[in-house]
Amino acid sequence: MSHQKFILCVNNISSYDLVSTPEARSFALLENVIRVMDLEKEAPNVVTEPRFRDLVASGYRVEVVCKEDAFKKGPNWHGVWIMRAVSDDGIEKLLVTARTRTSRNDIKIREIKTVTGVISFLQGIGFSHADVPLEEGKRTVQKLSSEEMAASRA
Fold this sequence. Notes:
Layout: H1 2-12, H2 22-39, E1 46-47, H3 49-57, E2 61-73, E3 76-86, E4 92-95, E5 112-114, H4 115-124, E6 139-142, H5 146-153
Parallel strand pairs: 1-4
Antiparallel strand pairs: 2-3, 2-6, 3-4, 3-5
């Protein structure tokens, strides 16, 4: 079973095909085995929504990242946004779906597809306001106020 996972991983790494010496090829194979083994554990830089909420309530900032330019379709704004929780020490946690693995054993980043979805998510974790970037690559950072933190604990 793990051999099949290993082959799948190697087939997805295009740089493997460019390796010329046997020593370099062995190193590339070892690197890929390590990547597969890391997926068997919970990734340290990702969290699901309940843990994300806890981090934000404990003082982490929320970074809203726009992955695709927003566009208006009818009365709604659409695009792709992801969320990160960032501590004052620079520790970053990316929000992922509750389904921890896809069929290929990958972790799936939670993407929100509408501005309304972003606002609803932020309001659901305690924010009374939302700052949403509308251009690809842009990001906004917000932190719960002490009043919002107190209200989210109540």
